UniProtKB/TrEMBL annotation, chain A:
Protein's name according to its UniProt entry: Cytochrome c
Keywords: Cell membrane, Heme, Iron, Membrane, Metal-binding, Repeat, Signal, Transmembrane, Transmembrane helix
Record organism: Acetobacter garciniae
Record carries keyword Heme: yes
Highest taxon above the source species: Bacteria
UniProtKB/TrEMBL annotation, chain B:
Domain FAD dependent oxidoreductase, first and last residues per copy: 9-40
Signal sequence, renumbered to the chain: none
Entry keyword set: FAD, Flavoprotein, Oxidoreductase
Domain Glucose-methanol-choline oxidoreductase N-terminal stretches: 241-325
Protein name: GMC family oxidoreductase
Keyword Cell cycle tagged: no
Amino acid sequence: MKKSVSKAGASLRHFLLAAPLALLGPSFAHAQAPMSRGHYLAIASDCAACHTNGRDGAYLAGGYAIQSPMGAIYSTNITPSKQFGIGNYSLEEFAQAVRHGVRRDGAQLYPAMPYGSFSLLTDADIAALYDYFMHEVPPLDQPSPKTSLPFPFSVRASLWGWKLANSIVQSPYVADPRHDAQWNRGKYLTDGPAHCGECHTPRNLSLAPKASAYLAGADIGSWRAPNITSDPVAGIGAWSAQELQEYLQTGKTVHARAAGPMAEAVEHSFQYLSPADMAAIVAYLRTVPPIAEPGVTAPNFSHGGTPAPFDYGAANARRDQSLLASTASGAVLYEAVCASCHHSDGKGTADGYYPSLVGNTTTGQRNPNDLIASILFGVDRSVNGHQVLMPGFDGNSLVQQLDDQQIASIANYVLTHFGNAQASVTPKAVAMVRAGSSQVPIAKLADPKVLAALVLAGLVVLGALVLAIRFAIKSRR
Amino acid sequence: MAQDTQTADVVIVGAGICGSMLAHKLARNGLSVILLDAGPHRDRDQIVENWRNMPPHNKSEYDYATPYPSVPWAPHTNYFPDNGYLIVKGPDASAYRQGIIKGVGGTTWHWAGSSWRYLPNDFRLKSTYGVGRDYAVSYDEIEPYYYAAELEMGVKGPNGQEIIPSAPRKNPWPMDSMPFGPGDRLFTDIVKPMGYDNTPVPQARNSRPYDGRPQCVGNNNCMPICPIGAMYHGVYGAWKAERHGAKIIANAVVYSIETDGKNNIVAMNYYDPDKGSHRVVARTFVIAANGIETPKLLLLAANDRNPNGIANSSDQVGRNMMDHPGIGMSFQSAEPVWAGGGSVQMSSITNFRDGDFRSEYAAIQIGYNNTAQNSRAGMKALSMGLVGKKLDDEIRRRTAHGVDIYANHEVLPHPDNRLVLSKEHKDALGIPHPEVTYDVGEYVRKSAVLSRQHLMKIAKAMGGTEIEMSSFFTPNNHITGGTMMGHDPKDSVVDSWLRTHDHPNLFLATGGAMAASGTVNSTLTMAALSLRAGDAILGDLKHG
């Protein structure tokens, strides 16, 4: 996955990842013409995902609110506007920002900008990107809102230490001679421009990517970025190359449908990449060291499900009974809310317009967050000019609003009948996904009480130290 | 007498399409709004469940009311069997057995989504053809509001297709039409050489994802309920209004209206289901309870200063009740038609919507009903005593060959077509039932002779057998008249902004204001008039 999501009020597991819900904007119209290398790289890097503010936002003019656990981070205007954008940046200053996260004025960029990944970009690609931004992107004189996170995150300088301590910034990519050109191209794209690991690699306590769990899957706000290592059970090792490529380019295969942030990645970026580059990414992913996951015993797409035909007897028994609003029966709710499209047997339509829930990676995951998030927020994906939409069922839904208990009941019915029967969902889990998932420990620093406690603890320690030193000095005398 | 009082800038009575859309507009523009509805909240999943569990007989008779249970404190019509709520009298009583739903969202919970604009001549029927009445508003004045309503509802229409006659447009429909199903295709092809142009009906139904709702996939279940939300319902406006701070109060049955010395509305009082009384106070009041409940409430709320009823100094409240008297025909076609592919209503013959003949007899709309025939086929096959494979074959044959077509007529306003409060029948709260006397008039009867010929010609062209044509006029739930608009306070109830002549701060946002019925569904025009009333209300309260 390339970026994270920001459904209403969603807080991210970490604040490194940007989260546009932006549908494919008109800005991509010019992606159809023969494009420059820099333009292609800008798409591969999905700059517009964050730097364009949604469907109606001006191309790369910023203003998109990336919801982080620490507060909203607003993307900046990166058009060549001299007043509000990057029009005054030299190539070197541009490279510093993209690869090192340092602004022209020397300030540190919040790592919502994935400069850790972008630091791998080669000099030639940085130059091509710079050319594109300076000469092809239309300048727009429009300010972007100021980001003001609470203390201590308001101190941007602290990021300097964070970057250093976690070796965030790497050297530009150098081909590995032990592998062929395709593999090297694939690794470069995966780790560099496409910044896959920003979502798919879990993070440590200080929110830096955990190298030992490279691409092994992580929670991203409400959604789950699954394990994409070559593990044949927990990862994508059992997917065919053709299916992987189809998925990345269209967001849709027999077994999988891209939703949430992955749908955005497909929509804004992957669908425009060349078949050769897609094949390279797939070839490289095949070689990523497998990482198994406890409890995952079969590939996500392989859960066969138990047939659950419509029960006429049960339906008749329900006739004229109390309101569905008060029922917690997953079977009843599934029939009323889901079966009109996915059918009573969960197999959707024969042409796949409505996907089968049986043998589907969303219902087959051990971690049910993607299933919960799909029910809450729906699926919205535009590929090749065609929009696919499953409505959401959260509080904003015009189609049907469901509460946490109802969604848990439906999800459990789906999991036990069509998906991974080992997984289960509680109303509390639904509430967390609805709210944007669990809070990151480090974000608690923004809580004045927590901060005060820490400062107080620090003062006590400091005081003790001072006393100890004085005592030591005294004793020496 | 009142146990509690709630206050807002605007109180709207009726959370159907007009009241809800208006509530959304006003709340979005910063006004505080209380939206009352006599009926309960309704849930799509429950309605779907109710429909699925209905007996086959009801389905075969197109019973769209039973999935929406009527509540004792706010009864609405149900004819399976007739619950006696709406009392109809007169020579064409059958033609006013309207289907209405009470509850948040109102009757557009079940409709085909047909969202026509009226023709410019519909707005000036009297000046053009010397019959009926003119609207107090012109087509050009309402055009921007038509478009605003189309955008809000998500109307798909035949962009790029020239249809004569049709209402002029400044903007294309928000969405393109969907392709016809097999039934509409075949019907179109057969009537074409006969001189009938069967063309797509503009509908508030998604031909692509729109407003967070999915694309229609032809569940063919628009009535009684779209199971997936691809169709527009009035309830969306209510929910959107709520997000902008409007307060929805369901199960609130307004029964009295307080006026002051200047005949402004001061307060309204409503009953909860237990007949506890509550009072709402506002600067502006809107009654948006459409063509039956609005006049009923105005008559019910008569007070000392307004002894004939609120807004009724003209004695026009409850008069001029209109709809589109219909003639239905069913037959078995020679070729398999397979009604049911696509939505229940996709196309219509509109050649006769306008013309000089309107000075003599009613304009009409002829249509093909694409509702799947399987329920009726099944009931009929069972009644034939068939079993086993013969039964299956007969159901299949009738499902494939069954055809329903209809002709709907415009009707002229007549003061004797009148709604009054029943003297005999009262609901659980003691509120009288509405009683309508109806005669479609010579204008319609004259036209109907020709309509029957049109229908018969079409049936013959399709090789029809078992031809059955209704011998009486049928209702179409396009309730208009009742609180008619006009420039003259002596013969009309509201002005062009839907403001009552009698009460400066009372608006009636309903199809009742429509001064001519035209030939097509009234919903879009009601919605557009209501949005226009919104501008008057905003003008009063924001700048006044």
